[in-house]
């Protein structure tokens, strides 16, 4: 039901996803009558792989996460996440209210032992390949231990989605030297260095798009600002490019001639291709689609959830965190179990 | 002497600047013999407006700011800032080591009464006009009072450089609602709201490039990451665009046809046009040029320093902060003078 458009995006995306992915079934959760109406024209072979699960409520895009959690127990997002909790679905995908989705997922699914709080992770494009950045807004203040956990979770996500073994992890900072940054970040660097992860060291904002490392770890405040600043800049650049090609009849002719090139360029930076933010650290897979995306974007988010299930990303995170906890227990009396 | 190239950039930029700006003289500070060699071919009319001031040392681009401050008392940047302190120059412009320049400027010039610590501010391009963003890296942790001071300083810079009266000020956050962000940011929002500044409220990363407000206030960690992430993304996009147009003989032909359009586009996002970061809050004008810029970029930084002198930006900041301090003193016994 979620997102700026709702069923007109999520249903076509689901149908397309099912055609491309023969061994998966979908449960569509929301207003049964409205969903059924969208499914009318489907061939039986596709329709048979869709179950509709009624939910009487919808969380609004601007609703308070806490109120949604408290008052909307039959919302489409709550029911979807319940299905994951009950093992009736292997993943939930939503284009709805991010805060409410996170609050609900945390409340219903709980975190993996050893993970303090879940994080939002996303693959970002880079000159030589994608980089996973987390946290992108779930945690405003982060302890050094949380930043270490983000490193573990981001690594496992890269293994799962990008199939790169032993991903390198960078810590987002304002300089490459060890003396840079807050006390919390300096301590996080120490923890990451001792963790057994493939820790690269400090990275800076530009390294996100330089493909310097596979995973960039940061607190949710910094990550969110970096993500949104990048979205803002990309929008400005594409606006300027469009304006320049639309200026006169001559520039329009140039645009026509250059169209195939410009199309290929656009495809490389198409935000829909990078849609799908993973909520990591929970005992279930939840993927958040951008609310403003279209059917292609939502399909990409469905594919991402599917990849995470196939790769057993949660099992891998749990195993790695368990090893980490054991190391901390063995390393001395001051060590504490953060589970 | 500073920057990746040194005199081959700074001297041509200086000469060009003098030709364009008849009522200004320049003092070039550094290795006298090397500078004089660069000035050989100049016509007398320009040469007469240049004074060369010898400095026996140069701070390396990767040198420790504290060591540079302690050991290089005759460095070109130290001597330049001394000239400002002594009133023999109205502003200093350097393409050298940012940390060393800031440490030296702080030590020699001191801050304006009521300003806790200086900040680095820069005009960033936006869809409908430039936005001043600060702090961009001088202060990793910022108190609410400092963020308020950044708001005041950024406003006065916009008045001086952009000639916009009563600039609007946004507080960088991860959502527009008042409940978002850290405790420090929530308190800063209260201070800004009570300050008499034209406070807009919270803004997000994308607002920097949407021209939502004239000034975006943030701590130096977040600001630095946002700036560098933007630089990284801009570089990635221009690389992709170049690669697509260079792919085949046909796309190269398209590029040739579209060249005038692409040139106009590039000019709009040319980082040289946005070169020049102002160190605000000091009792003297210091402008930092990007170390990797060329003569055009360095000239823009010289022009920016010149504009700040003409507009008396320091006097205006001092006046506004004095009013602010008086308000705080009058508002209750718990108020403290942060000077």
From TrEMBL, chains A, B:
Known EC number: 2.3.1.274
InterPro entries the record matches: FA_synthesis (IPR003664), Phospholipid_synth_PlsX-like (IPR012281)
Catalytic activities: a fatty acyl-[ACP] + phosphate = an acyl phosphate + holo-[ACP]
Keyword check for Cytoplasm: yes
Subcellular compartments: Cytoplasm
Pathway(s) where this gene product acts: Lipid metabolism; phospholipid metabolism
GO molecular function terms listed in the Swiss-Prot or TrEMBL record: acyltransferase activity
Top enzyme category: transferase
Domain of life: Bacteria
Record's keyword terms, sorted: Acyltransferase, Cytoplasm, Lipid biosynthesis, Lipid metabolism, Phospholipid biosynthesis, Phospholipid metabolism, Transferase
Cited function: Catalyzes the reversible formation of acyl-phosphate (acyl-PO(4)) from acyl-[acyl-carrier-protein] (acyl-ACP). This enzyme utilizes acyl-ACP as fatty acyl donor, but not acyl-CoA.
HAMAP family hit by this protein: PlsX
PANTHER family: FATTY ACID/PHOSPHOLIPID SYNTHESIS PROTEIN PLSX, PHOSPHATE ACYLTRANSFERASE
Subunit record text: Homodimer. Probably interacts with PlsY.
Sequence similarity: Belongs to the PlsX family.
UniProt protein name: Phosphate acyltransferase
